[in-house]
Design goal:
This protein has twelve helices and 22 strands. The protein has helices at residues 13-26, 33-36, 145-148, 209-216, 221-228, 246-257, 263-267, 280-283, 319-333, 391-406, 451-454, 457-467; strands at 59-64, 66-67, 71-73, 76-78, 84-89, 95-102, 111-119, 129-131, 154-155, 159-173, 178-179, 185-186, 195-200, 240-241, 277-278, 302-307, 343-345, 351-353, 375-380, 415-419, 431-435, 437-439. The strands form five sheets. Strands 1, 2, 5, 6, 7, 8, 9, 10 and 13 form a nine-stranded antiparallel β-sheet that branches. Strands 14-15-18-17-19-16-22 form a seven-stranded mixed β-sheet.
Length: 470
């Protein structure tokens, strides 16, 4: 596979972002008006008003696919639209992540999706890359308010391609895996309403204390709410939650959940030291994209480990851009209320806050269909079906689970029961005995988190338990 061009500096966005975003949002179908409208800028309490309202970062181009080729299955003519669709465009705005969506979230895409992109930096085309078509296993539980809102769409996994300005896509249906009434083999039709999503993550926010101070005054009402959800840990507008040592973490646990702890837990809290966590403000979340308010579950009894299936061709400095792209894809393209994962971890071991609501709280995610309640979803950025995860990423997941599960008294080496909310592996209402640290595939029939990452879960469990002092 050829290398994709690196991220550009988005200097041209300063003057054109308003037009770009408006056009990009207009192309997205089925987004409720309330979700599409940006929140009115608001000054954070006690901060000086910003000189100008901050530009909304990033954009989404949503383009309908067209018939690419006619097809026949064992001599039976079928409509071309049922067999192959695609798109070739060299006149699109810059983008860095691609995905394909369709109308019905309950319809699977039985086929292959491949894409090649043109680097905006070099003008060269990449090789063809496969896009993971199995993304229905992520998402809200059947019947959950988030899923019942009526705006959810079926989708492939997103693929990070780097800064690009041209795209060539082909979507091909599988052939011969269905039979008609006469027993003849028929191709599985492609889902209706196929669209290509091209996501521009926008510019990476500046870092450093001076930048933090300047950005605090730019907090919108929604950004203030997301930041305030971590107010027990850091000041409003913080771009990161610093690491704590073991003793300080134990004291914090008493402050956060002291009334809920048993006498034994107060005397000997098994909890790992809190890791450094980059906040949503730190990675540049546009809080006007997500739905207002937060959703919570009762507790955290288990952690599900995922991979984002976005590919491994990213630099760690680009991880915030990848996360902003996934966030925009989950919300604008797929219709979710927020990014699905509770946390994300890059291959250099940096931990990022995912779904808004507070990193120390039991935020209800949309990561493991059927088992989002009483769990936390942690995604390692990349694809780990054939590639081994880095030792830094594994260590970060172990540290994160040692802390997060420790807040609720859970042993990373243990097992627990979770009640299924419905899915393709366990029927709704079934009590399922799972590892406290499980892979996505343990709760849903899927390849996620990839064979190579799944094989490391035993190491993560034992390391997390050691970090807890067990």
């Amino acid at each position: 596979m050829s290398k994709i061009g690196g991220m550009r500096r988005y200097g041209f966005l300063a003057s054109s972002i308003g037009v770009t975003c408006a056009a990009g949002l207009a192309l997205v179908p089925g987004v409720p008006a309330g979700a599409a409208a940006a929140a009115a800028p608001a000054t954070a309490p006690g901060a000086a008003p910003a000189a100008t309202a901050p530009a909304v970062p990033g954009s989404t181009q949503s383009l309908p696919l067209a018939v690419r080729a006619a097809g026949h299955a064992r001599g039976r003519s079928v409509t071309a639209a049922r067999l192959e669709q695609g798109l070739y465009r060299t006149d699109v705005r810059h983008f860095s992540l691609v995905g394909v969506v369709w109308d019905d979230p309950d319809t699977e895409l039985h086929g292959t999706v491949q894409v090649r992109t043109r680097s905006a930096a070099t003008g060269t085309w990449s090789d063809w890359q496969d896009v993971d078509t199995h993304n229905a296993d992520h998402g809200a539980d059947p019947g959950a308010a988030e899923r019942a809102a009526g705006h959810i769409r079926g989708a492939t996994a997103p693929l990070w391609v780097g800064d690009s300005d041209g795209v060539d896509l082909r979507v091909r249906a599988d052939t011969g895996d269905r039979t008609d009434g006469d027993g003849a083999r028929q191709p599985a039709p492609l889902p209706s309403g196929l669209r290509l999503e091209l996501v521009d993550p926008g510019d990476t926010p500046p870092a450093g204390p001076q930048a933090d101070q300047a950005r605090t005054g730019e907090l919108t009402e929604a950004a203030t709410a997301a930041s305030a959800a971590n107010s027990g840990l850091v000041p409003l507008g913080a771009t990161e939650i610093p690491a704590l040592d073991q003793a300080a973490t134990a004291r914090e646990l008493l402050d956060l959940r002291g009334d809920e702890l048993t006498a034994a837990q107060r005397a000997k809290p098994y909890i790992g030291a809190r890791p450094r966590i980059v906040t949503r403000h730190g990675w540049g979340a546009d809080e006007s994209l997500r739905s207002r308010g937060f959703g919570y579950t009762k507790k955290v009894k288990a952690a599900f480990v995922h991979h984002t299936a976005t590919g491994n061709n990213y630099r760690c400095s680009q991880a915030p851009s990848v996360i902003r792209s996934i966030y925009r894809y989950h919300v604008r393209s797929m219709g979710w209320r927020d990014i699905g994962y509770n946390f994300l971890v890059d291959k250099c071991g940096t931990v990022y806050e995912g779904r808004a609501g507070g990193v120390a709280k039991p935020v209800l995610g949309a990561h493991t269909m059927g088992f989002n309640s009483d769990s936390v979803g942690i995604a390692v950025i990349g694809t780990y079906s054939k590639t081994k995860p880095s030792s830094a990423a594994l260590k970060a997941v172990a540290r994160l689970t040692a802390w997060k599960l420790g807040l609720y008294g859970m042993d990373p080496r243990g097992k627990t029961y979770l009640k299924s909310g419905g899915g393709n592996r366990y029927k709704k209402g079934k009590n399922v005995h799972l590892n406290v640290i499980s892979g996505h595939r343990d709760g849903f029939a899927t390849d996620c988190p990839g064979r190579k990452l799944y094989a490391k879960l035993g190491t993560i469990r034992s390391t997390a338990a050691r970090y807890q002092g067990r």
